[in-house]
Structures are given as structure tokens and as C-alpha cells.
Amino acid sequence: MTNTELAVLGLVAESPRYGYQIDQLIEQRGMREWTEIAFSSIYYVLNKLEAEGWLSSETHLEPDRPARKIYQLTPLGVIAYREAVRTRLAAPRQFSADFMLALANLPALPASEQLTALEMQRSAVRERLEKVSKKRDADGADQLPAHVQALFEYSLTQLQNELAWLEQFIHKIRNTLHAA
Questions:
Q1: What tens digit of pLDDT does each residue of 89-102 get?
Q2: Beta bridge pairs of residue 168
């Protein structure tokens, strides 16, 4: 099961939903900060999960509205969903290695370019930290379900630690430049 499939399955596991509701929750919870779920892929994933037998759907007709498919977990979907969560909690997958790969090849750049690139990274992390903080606060931080609060807290803690690490590393590179 892909991460995108698990994210969609998890939202449907909370309550039967239609595609637009899923997109709204992804946006509302700031999930696009740590997942790669575009609006256009939600319906593809829903159809795929239904073909796997993990979701079922019912078409709902309402006056003055187009027909909408409401998706819900099947018993097989519950098993697959729980196993995917259990596996990821017990043995998380490797994160994206882009930044680590760049650090491993840092000597390719002169110290001044390293500093510029890291300062840009620091600015981007600050912006993400501010965006996630504002999102959490706008959504009523203490009013959110415990697992949604945990998502925000985890993301904020990671961003704060990344920012602190960047500050220290930038300081080291500045000292190297001044010593040269």
C-alpha cells in the first residue's frame, strides 16, 4: 500500500466520505505538508482502493446537486488499513534522502555557496514552520482530535529541530569562512 493510499484510506476509515470531503480534510489538516496527494489523484486512489476491495461506494443523489459517490471501508479494507498502520508504526520507512544526499556531497560547492544554499533552506524551513503553526492555530489546535493534534505537534517538533540544526551548521560554515 502506498503512502497516498494509506492517507486516503485513513480518512475514509474515520467516516464514510466522498472525494471532495477527503480533499478538504487533507487541506484542513495540513497533510499536503508531508504527503504528496494532489486533488486530481484522490479519485484515482479511491477507484484503485475500491478495485482492491478495500473500499465500497454508494451513489447519493440530492436535489439540485450532481450525484456523488460516498466511500466506506470494507471488512477487507479494515484489515489492510490496520496492517499498514501497524507496519509503519513499528518499522517506519526511510524518509526522502534528497537533503542527506546533498550534505554527503557538500564539498562540491565552495563554502560561500554552501552558506547561501543553507540559508535558503533555513528560510524555507521557517516559512513551513510558520505555515504549519498558523494552520494548527486556525483549525483550533486544542479542539482537534488527539491524533490530528499529534500530527501537528510531530511536524512542528521536526521543523523546530531542523531549524535549530540549520542554525548551528550555518554558524559553523560562517566560522570557517571567517577563519579562511
A1: 776 565 656 777 68
A2: none
